[in-house]
What does this fold into?
Amino acid sequence: MARLLCQSQISKMITMHDVVEIIDKTYKGMGEGTVINPTKGTLDLGESSPYPPYHADINSMPAYVGWVDTAGIKWAGGWMDNPKQGLPYVSAIIVLVNPRNGIFTGVLDGTLITNMRTGAQTAVALKYLYPEQKSLTVGLFGAGVQGRTQIAAISEVFDIDELKIYDVAPESAKLFAEEMGSKISGKITICTQPQEAAQGHAVITVTHAKDGFFKKTWFEPGTVLFPMGSYKECEDETLLTADYIVVDHVAQCLHRGALKDLAEAGKVSQEDITATLGELSVGAKKLTASSSSRVLCVPIGTGAMDVAVASVVLQRAEKEGIGDTFNFAI
It folds into this structure.
């Protein structure tokens, strides 16, 4: 029997604090070799091709996570036209399976889990890169859902002394500051020019930009830059300025997201990757961000994170009897 869980039920089963711990454990699993995570497969529904005309793409993201002994897959995509229709940009579902016998155990909404674990990935990466820091300054591009989960997750690990926020829609940045002001220990500064937000221990871009708006001159020493958007937020020259490159999944990061164009042009390869987050988590490699270094960190997102979070949610739901059950084999 598979348990079916909707978004409102999931929200009662998990907190951001929980998700940060789960992501940390799963990166350790990657470093120890107990996570199996193939690269994403993508179905283009018109995001970068003329047909079909839906301005969307959808990814299949399978994984096995040893510490929860669960396999699964997330089917998730982004629909560019949805916000104009009052619909969420991200649509996702997660299916879990018992790896010992192939019995499907859960079908869960994946949108909330995606948003939460994406924020937690950044927070955990910063934990590895700033192991001695208790507080940080943060620059953030994008005042949407992902921007909120980024800050919520980082606040679980660090005090935020100052957050600089920029959004192409000033009213969105203002609303963000009003909603998030009570969630951080320091002040929030709304920036009127994008370069003003490119300052901090961590600078994070969570936008739909495709024009490489983040300039080389903005990437200052002492910064860990997180280009988290699915497309092209940074100029190629910006990325090539990095002293160190850290990723979550080498093969995936070289054919998707920020590094894709550089990899296809032969300007970045596996040899240019300093470390994975899994290697940093278990101490297989060492890297500490400093005031003189530019670190590029690309946790593009893996199915393992979704499977791990969904597995913990499912365990709790089963214990409390939350959600409906359904037998697909009838």
